[in-house]
Amino acid sequence: MSSPGPEININPKEQDFTNAKSYLLTTSLETGINLYDHLSKVLTKILDERPNNVVDVFEDISKDTKRSKFTSQVDTVQDKIDQSTEVALAQIQKKLFSKGEGEEAEPEQDEDVETPLPNLMELCFFFEQAGIGLNREEIIRVWLALKNLVDTHPLQHVRFWGKIFGTDQNYYIAEVEYRDNEEEEAEEDEEPEEHQEEETEKEADEGEEEEQEEDDTPKPDFKPPPTIPKEGPKQGANKKTYFVCNDPGKPWVKLPTVTPSQIQLARQFKKFLTGRLDAPVVSYPPFPGNEANYLRAQIARISAGTHISPLGFYQFDEEEEEEEDAEARDNFVENLDFEGIPIRDLVEPSLANWVHHVQHILPQGRCVWWNPVQKNEDDYEDEDEEEEREEPDEPEPEQGPPLLTPLSEDAEIGNIAPWTPKLSSSLVPQYAIALMHSNLWPGAHAFASGKKFENVYIGYGHKYNQENYSPPAVPAVQEEFPSGPEITEAEDPTPEEEAALRAAKQEAAEAQEEVEEAEEDEDEDD
Amino acid sequence: MESESLHLNIDYVGSSGIILSPEQKAALQTSLVILQSENKFSKVYFWGKILGIKDDYFIAQGVGKDELEGRKTFYSKDCIHWGLLPPATRQMRDTSKLAKGRFTGDPSFEFEHSETKKVGEGEEAAEEEETINIKEEDRLASVIADIDEDVRIVPRAAFIKTPSAHVIQNRSFEGLTVSESAKLCNYMHFRHPKLLLEKSLLQRANLDKAIDFLDSLEEDIPKGSWSLQFERGSGLLTLRSLLWQGYVFYHIPGTRKFGSVYVGTGEKNLDLPFML
């Protein structure tokens, strides 16, 4: 016990002061500093620096002081090289800007052959007049990436198709056409995979059969409708090949060809793309394939709906025209005599001066109709069951508008016009360009000026619908057995009927007994 | 997006397909300055564009001293002449939800919505058709108010609430770091808080009253209604709303630069739950 000593005679005022000071000196349990030291530091700082209107920024100064206490003067982390994603991407994109070795000698050769690379900056300029498109820097990067694509693949025609946003990453899409006969090599690489798939399916079937011998599970007699064959390269929906990449500078990935069933199913649901090509598409009805296939199907649908050109820019090849039917024409050539359509006519609300130059995709999912019945005819003879079945009616051939149909034929969306024509400038109309905005596929645009025109798509890749989406209903439950008399449950007999039956049985039994007895008697007699 | 640096900042949302033509940029630069001085705003924001069938609406908003209260909304079709939109009342917003389809581009256009209602009870019930007319100007004001309420966002701590309940820009905001900016909890809905008041006292205990006076994005329903992406590696963050497709927010980590703009059809994406 220490005695209070001389402090006992301090006056209460001083006592209060010491109490307050000791309270201020209490160290915080979390940060380890106390208010007394902190205040004195802050006040020193303020008196040293003497900022204007100090009362307004007092909180900030206090915060700064607290913060400066914690930052160590020597930071070992700071000396490390920053390997943020920003630097990593810059390293990738740096390659775009560097000229390849030995390339300097090449340009002379290139002058002979027409380069397939489009003048993207010029197109970007036109789109910018319209307030459509991407940043100029971004376009330059895409352009250089396209150049890379041209250098590494034998391409005849390249075009920047557009950009589709995903939830995690975005897709830049290039539309290309291979030089004649060059694509076949690329196609051959793909086919073996399909064979492999078939083989594995066969193996799987065999495996199942072995199991079935033991269990004898009933087999469904459901036969899937014949799969509609996909259109070959350079035909219909697979006329062009598409490459995608997530960032210009990253490798281009070739998208697989599209099958009719993929197009059919892609019409029935609406999903956001994620930005990863191998991501599964979880949807109802189930989609055959992953996101790469879904992306390809959407690209085919958008191209068919929104790729337009001024009337007369393309024309049918006159030589081919005589040979083929009018419906089957799927080739056209550039009209060299095309003079350009005056801008005023292009923005007319009738839209008769614009035509689709990509084939319409039929409900079947193909551009050229394929008859699902005719192929089955050989099978009929083999199987008796099928002959008994009703012969399916010859389906009506599906027909779409032929190639190079004017936009005036396009169907309206509810009561909304499918296209909005516009002039790029109302102030200087004599130098304006004509623009078309698609209302069916928001994000699809086209411009035309003189002999130049271009289409681009920048959006989420979904079709516009006035009504909200509702998923298709689940199909009705399949019948287990065909209903017939042998499996229909009979009504229970009433007690009267039972009594009558019992009486009848008894009578019959008695009669039987009598007969038997008589027989026995006869036997005994013998 | 603040109007004084519009021509620079609009480039940050260019990768989302939002660009202005040079003519529009020039016109906006001129007219927004006049708008600001005529209405004595302390700041004018370029809000975005609503695409119509025939014409588009350019939208600008002006604020006084308080950033959250008393915003005034203007629209223009040529970027030069601005018209004041009526403030969206609750009733206006409810009726304009009945209007379907795209904007036409004519502010005096009237959408018609007819409903069959049953009048009376039992056998006396008779069907009566009721037609509601919705003026496009009112619908425009309501949609803008809806978008502001649903998706207008700011980084955390970019705005503070003063003791006098004014919301002002935080002078000591230094931007989010790269790792902070990748988290949705560091973005706030710039509206009067709705969810914050429902939180328990325990949850609210650790909040900084000056900064955390808004709802955070983390609790948005459905999850995944925001698409968060880094452009240029981690040099630029873009947040796109999937609920209101066309709303884009950008922020450059480590700087005070942030902003948002809406360019779209003015239709809410009600299909969102099916699309994720």
TrEMBL record, chain A:
Q: Where in the cell is it found?
A: Cytoplasm, Cytoskeleton, Cilium axoneme
Renumbered to this chain, region (Disordered) spans: 180-242, 377-408, 484-526
Acidic residues compositional bias: what residue ranges? Answer: 180-216, 378-397, 488-498, 510-526
Q: One GO CC annotation, please?
A: axoneme
Source domain of life: Eukaryota
Keyword vocabulary terms for this entry: Cell projection, Cilium, Cytoplasm, Cytoskeleton
Name of this chain's protein: Uncharacterized protein
Say which species the protein is native to: Sinanodonta woodiana
TrEMBL record, chain B:
* This protein's name: Radial spoke head protein 9 homolog
Q: Quick check: keyword Disulfide bond in the entry?
A: no
Q: Which PANTHER family match?
A: MITOCHONDRIAL RIBOSOMAL PROTEIN S18, RADIAL SPOKE HEAD PROTEIN 9 HOMOLOG
Q: Where in the cell is it found?
A: Cell projection, Kinocilium; Cytoplasm, Cytoskeleton, Flagellum axoneme
GO BP terms: namely:
cell projection organization
Stated family? Belongs to the flagellar radial spoke RSP9 family.
User: What GO cellular component entries does it have?
Assistant: axoneme; kinocilium
Task: Respond yes or no to whether keyword Metal-binding is given for this record.
Answer: no
